[in-house]
Amino acid sequence: MALSDDAKNKAEELKGRGKEAAGSLTDDQDLKNEGKGDQAVAQGKQKIADAADAVKGKVDDIKDKLSGN
């Protein structure tokens, strides 16, 4: 079974948190920054997916109204 986009984004965010934590523990600023970047990318992807879902929901609502459902 394929992972949903939500699950993939959450996994990417968690991976970023892990990198950030590892960077903090090892005093590796590059790894810490990479982790923060991974989290930001995952959060951005999730916001785009949420917006797309909202638009799809509105389009479906309009289709239902036009078809009398």
TrEMBL record:
Q: Where is the composition biased (Basic and acidic residues)?
A: 1-20
Q: Which InterPro entries match?
A: CsbD, YjbJ_sf
> To which species is this protein native?
Gordonia polyisoprenivorans
The annotated region (Disordered) lies at 1-53
**Protein name, entry field:** CsbD family protein
Query: What is the top-level taxon of the source organism?
Result: Bacteria
Domain CsbD-like, first and last residues per copy: 5-56
Identify its protein family: Belongs to the UPF0337 (CsbD) family.
